[in-house]
Amino acid sequence: MTRIYGETALGLAWVIALAASLAVLFIGEVLGQTPCLLCWFQRAFMFPLAIVLGLGLWWRDDRVGRYGIALAIGGAAVALWHLGLYFGVIPERIQPCTATGPSCTDDNQLVLGVPIPLMALAAFAAIAALSALSLKDKHA
């Protein structure tokens, strides 16, 4: 019974990672919005999550959640930093966001009124929690 719950949690984590990966590809490739440097770093954590968690499900690897947790925590740290910069909590200027480059502080960073870094943070947090849940009651 534990395996079913673990696979369900892992499946949900994979769906979130896949949806987030496809969403940022849509924003960048279809809508033509160039990502800033911090968005690229977040993608560097999200894209492998979709692949690693998907392969873990395919191969029925009970321990793949460990990698989901590690990648999600890394991505969440970048997203949290990005969010702090977005809201002006962290006074450092976002680089390379310049007047001629992608902007991390204007309305281009909003989807349905929600900042993209906040969506990324929520996705990474959910993936980390679901990955941890997939490991619950597992023995070494």
TrEMBL record:
This is Disulfide bond formation protein B. The keyword Chaperone applies. Belongs to the DsbB family. BdbC subfamily. It is a multi-pass membrane protein. InterPro entries: DiS_bond_form_DsbB/BdbC, Disulphide_bond_form_BdbC, DsbB-like_sf. Its main location: membrane. The chain crosses the membrane at residues 42-60, 67-90, 110-135. Coiled coil: none annotated. It is found in: Membrane. Pfam families: DsbB (PF02600). Keywords: Chaperone, Disulfide bond, Electron transport, Membrane, Oxidoreductase, Plasmid, Redox-active center, Transmembrane, Transmembrane helix, Transport. The keyword Transmembrane applies.
